[in-house]
């Protein structure tokens, strides 16, 4: 039996914060013990939160008061989940790490620090070793681990096993992303209702940058050398769905590659979280569907167990001898943020980085 760990959720009223509150309220050994905010400080959680997710505000957190984002008030907290907005997150996370807290961040601010893991637990679990270097170099008692952009994860989770098992040449990705990806209140309705909103070159570029780092760290075994360079491009869009990023990817190969074999590799993909049977690890990180008209955002975004933790891949088709097409769907605030953060914490507990 594990010791119960007390977690603080920063940005607890935000769209990622509410998924942390929902998932941790049911967690076997990580409990939501401190809900932090900014504008909503001093009020009961259920009074201020916009519960834009499944179910009701859990009774475990409903009457908790939202408190300031202040490490001095968190003496009895064991770890920090930080879905804070870009810009606000960076210095706050550093302050917590300096004081000895393990910080799991969903924000972009530290994703490209060379000593900070950009962790997808099934793909690059060996990168947690960067924590040792980070603590030493910065003279910190705690540390920061980040999780990638939800959009990058939606493509990278299925691309990683393909990259690890075939001679991949490149991938061309088109995304159709939900509104919750932009936080609350997010995009003005007049920009997105009856519309498809291009997210622009900067968003395309950051998606590619993150997928490149994740793939370059993907290994079949811990000591495998880095694999071949690939050429990636993305075109990103937002539409008026609430949750779920839908991504169409054309993958090209350096040699003839059979779509059936690619489908098999995706279907059989498992990682360390599955071997370790971590509580938030879905049995299948990737669920492959064969119906021609699936995945669909409305029906498939909560796939897996825990719900929303599996990426659904469908429409795996041979385009020509060296090209396949596939579609993937990720629940952006669950697997792409809070669920991914909780799975990262479980891996860190298992590896002794969180005690
Ligand atoms: N949404 C997604 O699908 C997704 C996926 C992956 C990663 N992320 C990343 O996760 C982070 C949060 O996203 P979100 O969608 O949850 O945003 P959000 O809905 O806008 O929520 C932001 C939260 O942060 C709090 N906050 C704002 N400024 C603060 C400050 N200066 N100090 C302390 N707390 C502050 C707010 O608290 P009050 O309400 O109390 O003011 C609110 O709870 C972002 O960095 C985003 O890039 C989001």
Structure description:
The protein is of the alpha/beta class and 355 residues long. The protein has two domains: 5-149 and 338-350, NAD(P)-binding Rossmann-like Domain (Rossmann fold, 3-Layer(aba) Sandwich), CATH 3.40.50; 150-331, Dihydrodipicolinate Reductase, domain 2 (2-Layer Sandwich). The chain has twelve helices and 14 strands. The protein has helices at residues 15-24, 45-48, 59-62, 89-98, 130-138, 150-165, 189-192, 201-216, 259-268, 272-275, 297-300, 334-350, and strands at residues 5-9, 30-37, 67-68, 79-82, 102-105, 143-146, 168-176, 197-198, 231-235, 237-238, 245-253, 286-288, 311-320, 323-330. It has a six-stranded parallel β-sheet, sandwiched between helices. Strands 9-7-11-14-13-12 form a six-stranded mixed β-sheet. A two-stranded antiparallel ribbon has the order 8-10. Helix 1 (15-24) links the parallel strand 1 and strand 2 (30-37). The chain is globular and about 60 Å long. Bound molecules: NADP nicotinamide-adenine-dinucleotide phosphate. NADP nicotinamide-adenine-dinucleotide phosphate binds next to helix 1 and helix 12.
How is this structure best summarized?
Helices cover 30% and strands 21% of the residues. The chain has 12 helices and 14 strands. It has a 6-stranded parallel sheet with strand order 3-2-1-4-5-6, sandwiched between helices. Strands 9-7-11-14-13-12 form a 6-stranded mixed sheet.
Cα-atom Rg, whole angstroms?
20 Å
Strand line-up of the largest beta sheet: 3-2-1-4-5-6
Query: What is the helix content?
Result: 25-40%
What is the highest CATH level, the class of the largest domain? Alpha Beta
Measure the end-to-end span.
14 Å
Q: Examine the secondary-structure arrangement and name the CATH architecture of the largest domain.
A: 2-Layer Sandwich
CATH superfamily membership of the largest domain, which one?
Answer: Dihydrodipicolinate Reductase, domain 2
Identify low-pLDDT runs. Answer: none
What about the largest sheet? 6 strands, parallel
Shape: globular
Tell me the series of helices and strands, N- to C-terminal: EHEHHEEHEHEHEHEHEEEHHEHEEH
Mean pLDDT: 96
Organism: Candidatus Aramenus sulfurataquae
Domain Semialdehyde dehydrogenase NAD-binding: 6-131
Keywords: NADP, Oxidoreductase
Active site: 150 (acyl-thioester intermediate), 245 (proton acceptor)
């Amino acid at each position: 039996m594990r010791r119960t760990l007390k977690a603080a959720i920063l940005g607890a009223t935000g769209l990622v914060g509410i998924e942390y509150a929902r998932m941790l309220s049911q967690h076997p050994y990580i409990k939501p013990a401190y809900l932090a905010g900014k504008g909503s400080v001093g009020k009961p959680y259920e009074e201020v939160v916009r519960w834009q997710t499944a179910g009701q505000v859990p009774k475990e957190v409903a009457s908790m008061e939202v408190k300031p984002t202040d490490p001095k008030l968190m003496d009895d907290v064991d770890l920090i989940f930080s879905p804070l907005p870009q810009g606000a997150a960076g210095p706050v996370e550093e302050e917590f790490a300096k004081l000895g807290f393990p910080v799991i961040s969903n924000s972009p601010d530290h994703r490209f620090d060379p000593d900070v893991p950009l962790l997808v637990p099934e793909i690059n679990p060996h990168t947690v070793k960067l924590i040792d270097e980070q603590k030493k170099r910065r003279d910190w008692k705690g540390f920061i681990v980040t999780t990638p952009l939800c959009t990058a994860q939606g493509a990278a989770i299925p691309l990683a096993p393909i990259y690890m098992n075939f001679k991949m040449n490149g991938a061309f990705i088109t995304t159709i992303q939900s509104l919750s990806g932009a936080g609350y209140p997010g995009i003005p309705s007049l920009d997105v209702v009856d519309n498809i909103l291009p997210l622009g070159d900067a968003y395309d570029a950051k998606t590619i940058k993150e997928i490149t780092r994740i793939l370059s760290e993907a290994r079949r075994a811990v000591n495998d050398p880095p694999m071949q360079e690939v050429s990636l491009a993305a075109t990103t869009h937002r539409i008026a769905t609430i949750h779920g990023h839908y991504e169409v990817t054309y993958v090209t190969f350096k040699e003839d590659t059979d779509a059936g074999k690619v489908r098999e590799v995706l279907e059989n993909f498992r990682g360390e979280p599955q071997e370790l049977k971590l509580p938030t690890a879905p049995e299948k990180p990737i669920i492959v569907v064969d119906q021609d008209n699936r995945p669909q955002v409305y029906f498939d975004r909560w796939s897996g167990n825990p719900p929303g933790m599996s990426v659904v891949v469908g429409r795996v088709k041979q385009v020509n001898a060296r090209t396949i097409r596939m579609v993937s769907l990720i629940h952006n605030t669950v697997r792409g943020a809070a669920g991914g953060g909780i799975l990262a914490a479980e891996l860190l507990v298992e590896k002794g980085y969180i005690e």
